[in-house]
Each structure stands twice: as C-alpha cells, then as structure tokens.
Amino acid sequence: MTRPACGALIILFAIGAAPAAAQRNDSTAAAAAIYRRYAAQVVRIEVVEQSSAAKSGVGSGFFVTATGHIVTNYHVIASLVTDPDRYRAQITSSGKQPSPLRLVAIDVVHDLAILTSSIHPPAFITPAPVTISNGTRLYSLGHPLDLGLSVVEGTYNGLVDSTLYPKIHFTGAINPGMSGGPVLTAAGALVGVNVSTEENEVGFLVPADRARVLLTTVLAPDYRAPTTFLPVVSRQLRDFQDTYLPQLFSDSTPSVTLGPYAVPTRPGSFFRCWADATDGRTTKFRRTDHRCSTEDAVFISDEQSSGLIALHHELLTTNVLGRVRFTNLLGAHLADRGNATGGQEEDVTSYRCETRNVRSNGLTVRANLCLRAYRKLDGFYDARFVAVTLGGANTALISSLHLTGVTFDNVERTTRGFLRRIRWAR
Amino acid sequence: MGQVIVEVLDGRGAVRHRVDVIALPATIGRAYDSAVVLDDPYVDPVHARIVASDGWVAIEDAGSTNGIRASRGEAAARVNVVSGDTVRVGRTVLRFVDPSRPLAPTLADAQRPTTGASWATQPVVAWSVLIATTVLIVVGELWAADNRPVTSTVLSLLLGWFLLLGVWAGIWAVINRIVVHRFRFLAHMAIGSLAGAIAILFGQTEAFVGFLFPASAMAAILGIVAEVTAIGVPIALHLALVSTLSRAKRWSIALAFGAAIGAMTVASQVIDHRKFSTTPTVAARLEPLPASWIPAQAPDTFFTEVRRLRTRVDAMAAERP
User: Fold this and answer.
1) Domains of chain A, each with CATH number or no CATH
2) B-chain residues near A324 (CB < 8 A)
3) Half-sphere exposure at residue B92, Cβ-oriented, CA atoms within 13 angstroms
4) Mean pLDDT of residues grouped by 10 in chain B (321 residues)?
5) Chain B 224-263, CB below 8 Å of chain A: which residues?
C-alpha cells in the first residue's frame, strides 16, 4: 500500500496478506529493556470487515491513559471513518479475546487517531514535550505484519524540511503493521508515532506533540466524541488547507522564464521542483519541462488523499516543423495531460470538463478545467487545469495544475492565481 | 383477324390473356372445346355464348349456374356490349374489344432512362471523384501530421482506404450484377469515395468549429450530421444504380439507415459519458490559426463556467453510484 502521491513512500499499515518483510533482531540491551517495559502497552489493532469477520488491515497503537485511551495513526482506522457500518476495530493479542475499540478523535492532517478500549492498562505512555538532539538513539515499537511485537532501533534526524505538515525523519527499518506504534528514547520518552517509510531505512514519525494536543482535546471534560467522523475530516482538511492554499499563487510566487514566457514555480516551501530538457538533436522540436509537486499529501482513505498539488510547465519549440505540424505536435502533447488519475466510483464522480479560449495577460490561451467531486467528503474536489498558449507558429507553452482533495473555493482561487501568473517574460 | 378479342382480366384489371374469337357465335366456358376457355370453378362447362347483335355483339347466358353480369349491373340473360365493355362470368371478368377500333395515339416518353446516379456511370466523372477524394485524404493526413514521418503513414492510409473501398464497391457491384445485369464497379467506387470526401470535409469543419467555439454544441451537432450524410448519401446513390426503386424510396431508405447509425452513435456517446471514468479529458484538437483570429473571452467568463461545472459534479456526487 502506498500513498499515491508520494511514489515510494509506504504507509506502515499492513493490508491482509502483505509480504513478510525481513526483520532485524540485533537488539541491544537497551532495546531489550524497552521491549520488556513496553510490551504490554503496545497493542495490535485489527480492522475487521463486519459481514465477513475478516481482518482488512493491521496496525499498532499504544495506551496513553490509565482508562484505556489508545493512540494510533488515522490511516490505520480510516475505514472506520469512511465506512463506519462496514468496519470495526479491535485489539488482538495471542491467547486473549479480542477487545473492541471505539473511535473518539482524529487528526487527519497529522495522521493520528485516539480510540478507547475497556482495558485498563497497568502502565501507559504519556505524550509529553521532549527535547532531543539529532543522532539520538530511538526505539520504535510495533507489530510488523503478524510477526508479534518488535523493537526497531534507529536514530532521530530531526524534522523533515519543506513538508506540508511536520514529520520526523527516523533512520530505522520500520515496517508495515508498525503504523501507530510509539517511538521512544532509551529513557522511555515518547518522541513520535510510526507513520510511513521510504526504502533503505528512511522512516517518518508523527511528532509526539501532535498526539499530546489531540489527547488533551479528548481528555477535556466537555469533550464529546462525534457520532460520525466524515464531517470532522472535512472540517480539519478545510481548516488546514485554508492556512496555505490561498497564498499559493500570489504576486510573491517566484517565476521562471521558459522561452518567451514567465511561469510560476515553487509556490510554497513544501514543493519540490525539477526541470528537464531535450536537446532537439534527434527530434524535430525541443522540449523543456519544469515541474513542481508537493512531496506529501494528507491521507484520507486508501483511494483518496488531500492536498497533493502538482504543476507542470512544458515549453515546445521548433525550427523545423511548419505551423500546421507544430500545432498538431502541440495537440498530441496536450492530450498527454489528460491521463487517468485513479479513484473508485464509490468515492468520486467522473470528471466533467470545461474548455474556453481565454485572453489572459495578452496571451491567447486555451483553458481546460476538469473537476470531480468527492462523494463522501462534502465540498471536496479533484481538479486538473490545463492551459496551452495558442497562435504560436513555433513556440508554445502547456501548463497544468493538478489539485486533489481541495475545496471549490481553493480550486478556483488557485487556478485563477496560476493562470494570472502565466505571462510574457519581459 | 377475328371479329372479337376477348381479354381475360386478373383481379387488378390487368390482362391475363387474350383470345382472338374468329367466328360467331362462340362459346365461353370451362369445357376445353369452348372458344374462350376459362379456368374458374364458378364457371359452367358451357356458360355463355358470344353472338352477333344489332350494335356489335351480345353475351347470352347458356343456362349457367352462376349467370352473367354486365360490368355495373345485375345478373342478366343477355348483355349487349360495345367495344371495351366488361362482363362478369362466374368470378372472371372478361373485356370485349373490337379489333378494328382505332387505338389511342402513342405516348411520347419524356422520362429519360436515368438511374439517379448517372454521373457515376460516366468514367471521366467517376475517375475525377476518385482522384479528388484521394487528394483530399492525402492533404487531410498531411494536415494532421506532427513530427512523425509522413510518407509511410500516408501510404498505409491509402492502402487501407482503397482496400476498404474496393470491398465495399465490390459488394455493391455484385448486387448490381444480380439485380440489373450490370457490374458498374467503377461507379460504385466513385460513390463510395464520395462518402470519404464528405466525412473528411465535415470532420475538418467540425474540428475548426470545436477549436474556435469550444462552448457551443455546434461541433457535436456537425459530427452527427456528418455521420448521417456520409452514410446516407452514398447508400441512396448505390441504390439508384442497383435497384429500380423510386427516388423518394431510395432516399427514405438511405436516410433511415443514416439516422439509425447516427442514433446509435449518440446513444453510445451518452452511455460512455455516463460511465465512470477517472480521466480528465483535455480537448486537444488544435488548429494552426494566428492568435488574433481566435475568439477569446476574459478569464472571468471561463471561471463562471467552472462554477457551473461545480454544480454539475455536485449533482453527480449527490446521486448514488
């Protein structure tokens, strides 16, 4: 299971029959101590499909109160949010009856959730502020696949630069199924929660502080757990994207010059940009690509994520092709922007598109916007905007902007800003 | 030449056969020695006689079971007739004609023996249409080419086109041979290539309209009209060569056929449109026009449309999949 947005980024949530991953068992004495001390506090969470009673996924969690509150990742229990009638969650441990879990709070942006159980643990992990330096030894606990509780030793590498939301870079082989497990110092202070991994021991943690904030909310005397969580997801996503999306394509957004055009680039610090060009020796045209994309998006469900933003400028020039053939070449490259995006019919509608020839900043542009609505999250959309400059005999620009899981206001605002920032280079 | 020609009529009044009665009186009946032998079970072996009378001739009942009747009269024992009168004998209607009576003047035939697609049967015209369409196909392909090699594309396109056209024209030519004993392969080739020309010209028009006016439904309507025309017109012309159907009939058949195909296309487009898809389609057909020729709107107009788009997808999201 991967986050569609993030290439090799793998969420640590084992689906049914995930392949067994190699395990590292070179525990040091400290790791052994951690294991002994916390084995009873780290639980294995199973998400069960009600009608078939089959488990649809496995993750980890840990007790944070004496009354049985458990912290895990939102993505572990996401199906309880999107399909509450079909799925339930329970704690399973060998030789014991499964203990049912109830969802009480979520933080979809930071990928956290709090559940309650009827178990009163003898000890629990308290999320408290902790200050540590890069290179500190950390111990990640969790239930990788069905292999039982494991301790994985790794190092703290601080917060990752340029992300949409804070996450800690942890070097260590955390594996599917460990999602939601705690990451502790040798002294037992909670540093973060396992959330995802890239290959080669690059792991990511949700900072413990986010868990502390969520737990504080839940423990407030007037807190009432919502009966349905989808509106909570909507509200949290909306609040979160309103903090950064409206500013994306403002006048302060940097520009890059592509041929005669100036186009917006790296609209935020959490974007990564890269460029590529063909030399035109083997083709009858030259092509320059400039792309920017957010590195991560907010997980909503297996099929949906929010906040993925990708922009792609493509400059085509030719000294060889005539106007007619250059226009056809441009059309062929334009058609490539209409590639399929994935998604299930139960989650999203089909795309509907609108095309107009538009005069913007003295450029004649064919503007095309495709939009689809989320069925379960009211007011959220995926959108793809494609603009191609018209009338050029041997130079043209194709610019596209892809947005996932954003509100309509943000679709319009962002697309308008993007189009406004495409202009003639002076 | 006898004195009376007896014409035996069929149910619709057409002459089934003629009997030249040489001498009077003459008998009419089922008996084989009758002068006029009738194959009618309601007719007696000797049913009636043709006798000379003051006027010309008269028909006398010979005591038959079912009698005789004048054309618009009651049963009678004797009917005086003049040339052209009919008499009902049993269930058979007979017309009595005086061979010496003058005939009506011969009509001049104003209708030329045209088929409705006579142009196609003239080799010069047929070849011209074939060549013109071939040129159109080549130009159309060059127009649609991008940076790929053109020669091989054009050649393979032409090969496919002539293969298809040959099979199509061949089928019609065989039908032609069976029905009216003429092959007319070249004529059918010309008519078939006319379909290609119509499709190409309409297709280009549709592309330009769609490019210049993306908001209007004109391009879609043109597409359907093109299809109905490109199918209907050639079928009407092929039918003109292979059949003797009237012009109105040929065009109704052709139009019905074209409309049926057009309706199927529309239906399949509607079904496709409703089918769930995760592809955001870009209208990617561009035409090589300078910017100043292209009607364009302010971005605000575009975003007004985008807001309408939102209403549409919201309505879709509200329906259960």
Assistant:
1) 39-228 (2.40.10.120), 237-424 (3.40.1000)
2) 142-143, 145, 288
3) 25
4) 83 86 89 92 93 88 89 81 89 90 75 67 92 91 76 90 95 89 89 91 91 88 90 92 86 94 94 91 89 93 94 90 66
5) none
